[in-house]
Amino acid sequence: MVRVSNNLVGILNIITLVISIPIIGGGIWLSKQADTECERFLEKPVIALGVFIMLVSLAGLIGSCCRVSCLLWLYLVVMFLLIVLIFCFTIFAFVVTNKGAGQALSDRGYKEYRLGDYSNWLQKRVNNHWGRIQSCLQDSKICKTLIDDGSSTKVEDFYKKHLSALQSGCCKPSNDCNFTYVSPTNWKKNSTSSLGNPDCNLWSNDPNVLCYSCESCKAGLLDNIKSDWKRVAVLNIIFLVFLIVVYSVGCCAFRNNRRDNSYKRYP
Q1: Are the CB atoms for 199 and 177 separated by under 8 Å?
Q2: Quick check: pTM over 0.85?
Q3: CB–CB of 155/257 below 8 Å?
Q4: Minimal CA–CA distance to 186: which of 122, 141, 143?
Q5: What are the pLDDT digits (tens) for 85-132?
Q6: Are 47 and 24 in contact (CB under 8 A)?
Q7: Are strands 180-183 and 186-188 parallel, antiparallel or unpaired?
Q8: How far apart are CA 86 and CA 65, in angstroms?
Q9: Other Cβ atoms closer than 10 A to 241
Q10: CA 201 → CA 23, 131, 173, 179, 234, distances in Å?
Q11: Which one, of 192, 148, 196, lies nearest residue 171 by Cα?
């Protein structure tokens, strides 16, 4: 008798198997087309993810449709570990992104960001890998629109701009510096300028340097990470519910396999 749970597990794994093919293809494409360190950094995780999904899908598909209990058991073990891992990561993501936010400034359309406002764990991870991250940010040309604006942007218009966290942290000096505005990425030190903030000494009008080495740039990145992780955590909750349902159906299919094997053994 055809078991509904076995068929359902089979259908779900056919879908995930098909999904794994473009993921692997995307990783291979990145390895061939990558021009920057950022893109080369992504290729191996993408290929590994695709291969992992393919192998797990094959185990679930063969185990459910061909009634191979050992493969279905392996599939269920991997699914259980995945559920535990996603649950732990979701809790962790909410904890480490609980701290930190941009500071609103009066008469400014943008916010300023301080590295010390964010979780110590995130700060350490960013500081340890800043060389690679900085290279990626420079390759991404996040400041290009501000550089292209040049002197055509008046100071009052610039102060009203809604800059992203990365643009605010990496493409202009800190408000604490009191530099004189020339253009969005060109500022002059004067008699009222303050160098109390270490970022003020790191600022350069060179479009390849700007404030990419500043603490504010790291803070802008962390604000982006915080927002992205919160979105991922919410999606993880939805995915977790889906995995639990699939795992439950898989358990039913495994039980059906064992029952069918018992009938065959003892006719």
Answers
A1: yes
A2: no
A3: no
A4: 143
A5: 889 988 988 888 887 787 888 888 899 999 989 989 889 989 998 988
A6: yes
A7: antiparallel
A8: 27
A9: 10
A10: 44, 19, 10, 11, 40
A11: 148
